Amino acid sequence: MAEVMIAVMPFHGHVAPMAAVARAFLDAGHGVRVYTGSAHAPRFEALGARVVPWRAAPDFDELDLSATFPALRGRKGPRQMLANVEHLFVRTGSRQADDLVAAYRDEPWDVIVADGLSLGAHFASELSGTPWVTVSIVPLGIPSRDLPPPMFGLAPATGVLGRWRDRALRAVARAGARGIQRAYDEERHRTGLPPNHLTFDEACYSPTLVCASGIEELEFHRTDLATHVVFVGELTRAASGTPVPAWWPDVASSDAPVVHVTQGTQNVDPHDLVEPAFAALGRRRALVVATTGRADDASLPFPAPPNARVAGIVPYEALLPHVDVMITNGGWGGVLAALAAGIPLVVAGGDLDKPEVAARVAWSGAGVNLRTGRPSARAVLRAWRRVSSDAVYRANAQRLAAVLSEHDGPREVVAHTLGLLDAGIPNPAGD
To answer: Is 431 a member of any domain?
Structure first.
């Protein structure tokens, strides 16, 4: 049996899929420790894992990031994405590594399995000389000569002019990410590691095994995808254990189409998407089920229309079989859950990885990309009508559902990890 360290950035959207991975390792009889923030420790402890909390690294509140990272205050869109990456994910890397190396000295592990934005796992792998597996819980951001950079939320262009466009955008992205790259180089230096030739985008991914959530049918075609990248489907298909709300009989017995509106679990300002969705659908023949993304708070700062029902979180295993269309901010886990249920989507992807998710959904033909995280009510209404009336969207969602049903993501992560250990592939020293 292997001793496994699982490193999880302390966000709900990261914790849910990595908890499923931890459960799969535990069910297979392996020893599991989990490195994450204190707010999420009970979830992993309930599974039977031992938790190593963030100590040297700043243990932050994901619902109040600016309290710990003042540079994030008041930012939206690309500026927020760049600031988030630099301050949250990069400049905590050396202190994450301090925590992880201390845990390794106390009790060595055989392999470290980490979500793709856990830079400390990369550093700790190098410092300990142990294998590192990346679980990519967002769409792949590995740089490619065939694709535009991920920050723009664009599908690959075609033709000579299109290739020139993508080449120019890659240059713009490199220039815009200089602060992130400088932070990455400085964090390596703080850990005592030598400089390397990697960009931060490259450094997020293990050089020996990347288990990517999703399927190839949702990934833009590229000719330079490394052979150690494997697609494992959905990671959070298991029952959540969340109870249904008191108004659940309204959903179970609804004659009207059920439309699920979700603001996700990060950047949960309901004015961005829930409010325009209510304005768009409040007088339509539909039952609108909206979630705030906060399990402890189902309140909204504006009234809900009579045909809407609101909860903090609703268990997807109960809800999705009733849903006709999902309107989402583009959280990857929620999108994969909807597609696994054959549900077409309207995606309002505003920042971070959300524009990439929206672009992939539109490219696959399973939904409409609103190209903003703060759409107008008119844009939401038009997109909902389009997705509801055109059977092609549902057919494409069902096509993707059939492929997703062939996977068991958490078990596949375990199998691929054990294959890596059995092969005895050494950890490249940061190259």
So the answer is: no
Q: Which residue has the tokens 């930012």?
A: 75
Residue type, 251: V
For 343-356, what is the mean pLDDT? Answer: 89
- Report residue 194 as tokens: 């030598």
Q: Rounded mean pLDDT of 377-383?
A: 97
Instruction: Report yes or no on 343 lying in a domain.
Output: yes
**More confident call, 171 vs 106:** 106
**Do 66 and 208 lie in a common domain?**
yes
The residue written with tokens 């703060």 in the block is 374
Q: Computed over its alpha carbons, how large is the radius of gyration of the chain? A: 21
Residue 171 confidence (pLDDT): 87
Same domain, 70 and 174: yes
On the question of pLDDT at 319 being above 70, the answer is yes
306 and 413 fall within a common domain: no
Structural domains in the chain (count): 2
pTM comes to 0.91
The CA-based dihedral angle spanning residues 303, 309, 313, 316, taken in that order and rounded to the nearest 10 degrees = -150
* Whether residues 161 and 15 fall in one domain: yes
Strand partners, 271: none
User: How many CA atoms lie within 13 Å of 100's alpha carbon, on the beta-carbon side?
Assistant: 36
What pLDDT does residue 269 have?
A: 82
Domain that holds residue 284: 248-404
Is residue 369 a contact partner of residue 361, using CB atoms and an 8 Å limit? yes
Asked whether residue 117 falls in the same domain as residue 175, the answer is: yes
Alpha helices in 221-347 (DSSP H): 248-252, 274-281, 316-319, 332-340
DSSP assignment of 388-421, as one string?
Answer: HH-HHHHHHHHHHHHHHTT--HHHHHHHHHHHHH
Sign of the Cα pseudo-torsion (409, 413, 416, 422, in order)? negative
CATH number of the CATH domain containing 271: 3.40.50.2000
- Tally Cβ neighbours within 10 Å of residue 365: 15
pLDDT in tens, 223-272: 999 999 999 999 987 666 788 999 999 999 999 999 999 987 666 788 99
Does any domain span residue 354?
Answer: yes
Q: Which two tokens stand for residue 129?
A: 């000389």
Our CA angle for 174, 85, 338, nearest 5°, is 105
What DSSP assignment string belongs to 337-393? Answer: HHHHTT--EEE---STTHHHHHHHHHHHTSEEE-SSSS--HHHHHHHHHHHHH-HHH
Q: What value does the mean pLDDT take over residues 159-178?
A: 86
* CA dist., res. 416 & res. 386, Å (int): 40
41 Cβ partners below 8 Å, 6+ apart? 51, 53
